[in-house]
Design a protein that fits this description.
There is one protein chain. The radius of gyration is 27 Å and the shape is elongated. The strands form 2 sheets. The chain has a two-stranded antiparallel ribbon. The chain has a two-stranded antiparallel sheet with strand order 2-3. It is mainly α. The protein has one domain.
Length: 99
C-alpha cells in the first residue's frame, strides 16, 4: 500500500513541476508590484509567485511550530500534574494501610 502513496506523491510532484515550468515559459514578461508609494523591481511573474509560495510555506511552518511548542508545554504541565496526583494517591493508599 505504501507504493501507491509513493506513486501518487511522485505524480503530484511531476504535475507541480510541470505547472511551474509552464508558468515560467508562458509568463516571461517582467512585472512590478506597487503598494502605496513602494514600487518593487520588475521581475517575471514566476519569481513573484515562487516567492509568495515560499513565504506562505515559511509562515505555515512557523505557525505550526508555535502550535507544536504550545502542545509540548501543555504536555509537560499535564505530566507534572499527573506525577503529583500519583504521588498523592500513593501517599493516601499507604496512610490507609497503616491506620
Amino acid at each position: 500500500m505504501k507504493w501507491v502513496t509513493n506513486i501518487v506523491l511522485l505524480l503530484l510532484v511531476i504535475v507541480f513541476i510541470g505547472a511551474g515550468v509552464l508558468l515560467r515559459v508562458d509568463n516571461p514578461d517582467p512585472v512590478s508590484v506597487r503598494f502605496l508609494n513602494f514600487e518593487s523591481p520588475s521581475i517575471p511573474v514566476f519569481w513573484w509567485l515562487l516567492g509568495s509560495l515560499l513565504a506562505g510555506v515559511g509562515v505555515g511552518f512557523a505557525l505550526a511550530f508555535v502550535g507544536f511548542l504550545r502542545g509540548k508545554y501543555t504536555e509537560r504541565q499535564l505530566r507534572r500534574e499527573l506525577n503529583l496526583n500519583k504521588e498523592e494517591l500513593h501517599r493516601i493508599r499507604t496512610l490507609s494501610l497503616h491506620d
